[in-house]
Amino acid sequence: MVGRRPCFDQSGISFLVKMNFEIGRGIMKRQAIVVALLLAGAFGILNRQTAQAQESASIQATATIIAGITIIGTNDLVFGTVLPGVNKSVDKATSGFAGEWQISNGTVNSEISVTLTLPDSLQHTTNPTGMRMVFNSTDASYDDGTGGGQAAPAGVFDPNGPVARRVSGVGTMNLWIGGTVMPRLTQTGGDYASDVTMTIAYTGN
Question: What is the pTM assigned to this prediction?
Fold first, then answer.
């Protein structure tokens, strides 16, 4: 007996096509879900590995402010009586006449810059006239405790430019200055004065 082939009408064929489509779509959904799960697992492992590979550490930022240094003028530069037309000098080693400053409260063995603001003349105290004054390259000296004081200081320096020196092991230093006045023959009589200013500052060295 010859086998008979199934006979489907149009509605049956449509049913089979639809059923095959639904089956295929279900398989694709399951495959998509599996892929998504695999990707999620991979990303989770990667994130855990990244987190496990990261380490951190902290340090502190610190600073110490150096205490303020102190300077005072302890003696004026005194020329005394001056004759018209006759130059008069005061040596830096002459106690009571040479100008003097004292530095204290300095940081031990720290370097400081020393700058002098020097006048080029003494000004009459009541008249608008001046008397010339000069400072040479050896007119200033200092003692940081390693010398013998004003008469035998630790060193000599030029007051016309800034210099760098170190304060002593106890944070002190003494400095002295001399100079020369040069009055004219016609110099007006009377008292003369001008400021000689010393400025100091830490250099950081």
Answer: 0.70
